[in-house]
Amino acid sequence: MTPGRHSFAVTTGAVLLMVVVFSSAAAPFLAPHATDDRFPGLLNAPPTAIHVEDEAGRWHAPFIYQWRRLSQLEQLYEEDRSQPVPLAWLTGGRLVVSADESRAPLLLFGADGFGRDVFARLLFGARTSLALALIAALGATLIGACVGGVAGFSGGAIDGLLMRGSEFVLVLPATYVALALRAALPLVLTPPQVFLLLGSILAIVGAPSIARGVRTIVAAERQQDYIAAAISLGAGRLRLVLLHLLPATAGFLVVQLTMLVPAFIVAEATLSYVGLGFPEPVASWGTMLQDASNLRSIVDFPWLLSPAAAMFVVVLAVNLLLQRDVRVRARTRAASGLVLQ
Amino acid sequence: MIRYLARRLVVAALLVFLVSSGALLLTRLAPGDYVTESLGVAGRLDAAEQARVRYGLTRSFASQYGQWLSNAARLDFGRSVAYDRPVSALVPERAANTILIAATALLLATLIGLPLGTISGSRSGGFIALGVRAVSLVLLSMPPLLTSLFLVFAAARSGWLPIGGMRSATGSGAIDIIRHMVVPVLALALPIAAMFERLQAQAVSETLAQPFVAATIARGVPQGRIIWRDAMRVAIRSVASVYGLVIASLLSGSFAVEMVTAWPGLGRLMLDALRARDMYLVAGCAAAGAAFLAAGTFLSDAAVAFADPRVRE
Question: pTM for this structure?
Answer without folding.
Answer: 0.87
